[in-house]
């Protein structure tokens, strides 16, 4: 794999470096609910009242098993789908209520979404350089001179030698790095990436993760990543764990916090769920303004817990 120099600042087309280029945008969800209908005609609740704020320029990883709602939430944040209920804001724009034409313009100006699987983001018959050119035209950045040129982006992601190579002949790691280059080619203020490291080897995975962080550092872009890989999520200073369509926990700077949901709903950490299964009676008492104590009911058949 060609080397990727991750220590040098990105050279934008106008000759500037660092966050003088695209800046991140704040993301806010208020009571977001989403339902979808199965082929059998049943309604399934994918998201259950999501309240969330992601600061401009923040880098966040959503972690959780398949079916927990994290990919659905990503498509809502990108305006690809609309929520069944609730409100979603990108900066001052409430994208959940915009008309189709206005929403398309906002998406082109603010958001770039990497779908799961590199080939879904690329034209397999086109070269690497052509893919970046097409991405820029599709994202409305064709006439902007403040963006890095295709050759510069390819050098940044370590694909300078593959610039005229067709995507269909590239390795999985090369395709994923090219998909990332295409995603930032339009200078988005919000980058959404769904499982960007799935099916990659260790070296390619590390390169893609490092590039994602570099985008946030050098461009100031807000970066939101969906992953099921704990080792990928651990590289982010903020992680959000999804459980059953809700935000169950947040990790910040190495500490994990349970999140109090609507009507006081609280997900227990996994290790406690195994010890205190559904139906367990617990007593919750406030000891001071910042501490609660939780104890389970004791009975003749329930051994006392420490």
Explain what you see.
With 306 residues, the chain is of the alpha/beta class. The chain has 2 domains: 18-246, P-loop containing nucleotide triphosphate hydrolases (Rossmann fold), CATH 3.40.50.300; 275-306, no CATH class. It contains 8 helices and 13 strands. The strands form 3 sheets. A 7-stranded mixed β-sheet has the order 6-7-8-3-9-10-11, sandwiched between helices. A hairpin with a 2-residue loop joins strand 12 (282-288) and strand 13 (291-296). Residues 1-21 have low confidence and may be disordered.
Question: How is the secondary structure organized here?
Answer:
Elements: E1 27-37, E2 43-54, E3 59-63, H1 70-77, E4 85-90, E5 93-94, H2 100-110, E6 111-114, H3 128-138, H4 150-156, H5 172-184, E7 190-194, H6 202-219, E8 222-227, H7 230-233, E9 238-243, E10 246-252, E11 255-258, H8 270-275, E12 282-288, E13 291-296
Parallel strand pairs: 3-8, 3-9, 6-7, 7-8
Antiparallel strand pairs: 1-2, 1-4, 4-5, 9-10, 10-11, 12-13
Helix pairs in contact: 3-4, 3-5, 5-6
